[in-house]
Amino acid sequence: MFGREGRVALLAVSTTGILGVFFVGPIPQDPSYHWFADTRVIAGVANFWNVVSNIPILLVAAFGLWRLPRLDERETRMGYFILCVAVALVGFGGHALKHVVAAVAVLCIVLAVPAAATRVTK
């Protein structure tokens, strides 16, 4: 797929990005980040419309997984599967749980890798 030069360039860019994370300090987050547009509780769900707005993301992930057996290229199935699962995790874990719980702990779980990388440099 890539020639030797392309692989070397990809490796160089990836390595630079990964190593760069260790030299960047913590990025402060605006406290207003947790102020949601819709603060109503409907059917026992806090920030109801913010949570419900993630349903289309989950539908896209489900559709992608449903289409998985129909892929022509067997070599691309694993990557496609990982993409669909990642989209589902974003729709469920990254957004919906954050809105339901509205706690910093969930955001820390979603951002665990960058936080760990920042701590390593200190």
Brief summary:
With 122 residues, the chain is mainly α.
How would you describe the overall organization of this protein?
With 122 residues, the protein is mainly α. It has one domain (29-120). It has 6 helices and 2 strands. The chain has helices at residues 4-21, 48-52, 55-67, 77-101, 104-110, 112-120; strands at 41-42, 45-46. Helix 3 packs antiparallel against helix 4 and helix 4 (77-101) runs antiparallel to helix 5.
Helix content: 55-70%
Overall pLDDT score: 76
* Beta-strand content bin: under 5%
Please, how many helices?
6
Gap between N and C termini: 39 Å
Spell out the helices and strands N to C: HEEHHHHH
How do the strands of the widest beta sheet line up side by side?
Answer: 1-2
Major β-sheet annotation: 2 strands, antiparallel
* Computed CA radius of gyration, to the nearest angstrom: 19 Å
Structural class: mainly alpha
How many DSSP E strands? 2
Uncertain segments of ≥5 residues (pLDDT<50)? Answer: 115-122
Number of domains: 1
Notable traits:
disordered C terminus, two-stranded antiparallel ribbon, 122 residues, 2 strands, mainly alpha, 63% helix, 6 helices
Topology:
Layout lengths: L3 H18 L19 E2 L2 E2 L1 H5 L2 H13 L9 H25 L2 H7 L1 H9 L2
Antiparallel strand pairs: 1-2
